[in-house]
Amino acid sequence: MNICVYGASSNIIDKSFITAVEELGKKMAQRGHTLVYGAGAEGVMGASARGMTAGGGKIIGITPSFFNVDGMIYDKCTELIRTETMRQRKQLMEEKSDAFIMAPGGIGTFDEFFEILTLKQLSRHTKAIAIFNIDGYYDSLLALMQRAIDEKFIREECLELYKVFDNPDKMLDYIENYVPVDLNIIHLKNI
User: Fold this and answer.
1) Which are the contacts of 166, defined by CB distance < 8 A and separation ≥ 6?
2) C-alpha 60: how far from its chain's center?
3) Which residue from 121, 29, 123, 32 is spatially nearest to 76, judged by alpha carbons?
4) What pLDDT was estimated at residue 184?
5) CA distances (Å), 134 to each of 56, 79, 83, 103, in order?
6) What are residue 188's DSSP bridge partners?
7) CA angle 173-94-191, nearest 5°?
8) Which tens digit of pLDDT belongs to each residue from 156-179?
9) Residue 139 contacts residue 133 (beta carbons within 8 Å)
C-alpha cells in the first residue's frame, strides 16, 4: 500500500517528533508499505524517509523543481518525481497514495491535510486519513474542529472522515483494515 505522510521539514523541532516519525517509517517498511511524501531530507519528512530506508522500504519522493537546493532533497528516494508547482506536487501525492497520515507539521502540512480532508468530504476520494498526534501536538486542532461543530460550521459526521492516533501500530492497523464507504455529501455539507 502507498501511504502518504505529510509533515514538517524543520530540523529545529523537538527530537521526540523526529524519533516517533522515524519509527513510523520503519514500521511502514516492515509491513511492506511504500512511503509517498514531499522528498525532504530534514525534519519529520526526512525522519519518515530514514525510517523507511532503515526498514528496507520503497520511497516515492515528490518535489517541486524550485526545491533543488543542496541537502534539501532526500538522496535515497527509490523514485524522485519533480513537478513545476506545489499544486502539481499535492495532486501527484494524492493520486499515488492509498492512504494519508498527517504527522506534526506547520503551514504546508496543514494545507495538505485540509485539502485532502476537503476532497474526501466532497466525495472526490474515499481513502483513509489519519492524524498522528504525537505528544498531543494536534490537541488544539482537534479542539478547533469540535468548536466548529459546536458552532454549526461543520457537521458532526465529518469527524468520521479521519481518525486520530498516538500509537503508530494502531494507526497502521486502521489504515490496513480501512474499508472505504460511499459518502453522502449532503450529510457532510452544512447546507
Assistant:
1) 132, 133, 134, 135, 136
2) 14
3) 29
4) 65
5) 24, 28, 30, 8
6) none
7) 90
8) 999 999 999 999 999 999 999 999
9) yes
CB under 8 Å to 183, separation ≥6 — which residues? 120, 121, 123, 126, 161
- What's the chain's average pLDDT? 94
Quick: pLDDT tens for 78-115. Answer: 999 999 999 999 999 999 999 999 999 999 999 999 99
CA angle 88, 148, 112 (to 5 degrees): 15
* CB contact at 8 A, 59 and 53: yes
> How far is Cα 124 from Cα 135, in angstroms, rounded to an integer?
31
Name the phi and psi angles at 62, rounded to 5.
Answer: -125, 120
| Residue found by looking up cell 486520530 in the block | 164
With beta carbons less than 8 A apart as the criterion, state whether 183 and 120 touch: yes
Q: Note the pTM of the prediction, 2 decimals.
A: 0.94
* DSSP secondary structure letter of residue 158: G
Alpha helices in the chain (DSSP H): 15-30, 43-54, 86-96, 107-121, 139-150, 168-176, 185-188
User: Which of helix, strand or coil describes residue 69?
Assistant: coil
Length of the chain: 191
User: What's the confidence (pLDDT) of residue 150?
Assistant: 96
CA-CA distances (angstroms) from residue 7 to 53, 98, 157? 17, 17, 26
d(CA 177, CA 101): 15
